[in-house]
Amino acid sequence: MLIGELSRRTRVGAHLLRYYEAQGLLEPDRSANGYREYTDEAILTVTQIRRLLEAGLSTEDIAFLQPCLAGAGPDLEPCPELLDTLRARLRELDERIDTLNRSRQALHHYIDATERRASRHYQPCDSTREDNRM
Prior knowledge:
By secondary structure, this protein is mainly alpha-helical. The chain folds into two domains: 1-79, Multidrug-efflux Transporter Regulator, Chain: A, Domain 2; 80-122. It contains six helices and four strands. The strands form two sheets. Strands 1-2 form a two-stranded antiparallel ribbon. Strands 3-4 form a two-stranded antiparallel sheet. A hairpin with a 5-residue loop joins β1 (29-30) and β2. The radius of gyration is 27 Å and the shape is elongated. The mean pLDDT is 88. This is MerR family transcriptional regulator. It comes from Micromonospora qiuiae. InterPro entries: DNA-bd_dom_put_sf (IPR009061), MerR-type_HTH_dom (IPR000551), MerR_fam (IPR047057).
């Protein structure tokens, strides 16, 4: 199948499929006219890539894990260093979540402090006072 059909069948844009190829994650054959030709197995490969990306893995991580992939899940075969890679990525995500939570708390603090200050310094305008002066 050509890239357009793979794109339709996986609902992944052709530009992303070319990117996956550039990253070494997807390996099409080339026809005599230079077109990319994919086997039906490419559908499974793209599905695996998308699910691992959704799990927060980088394309570099996926390239490392790809020999361990089986099924659309993807299910992972116990390959050397597999769990170390997954656990390292999970630690990175946990650290990012902690950082985001601290940033969120700091923003709440700034918002609360600013709202308290605004309520003390700014009184609502009384439009009737303006009208009475005229």
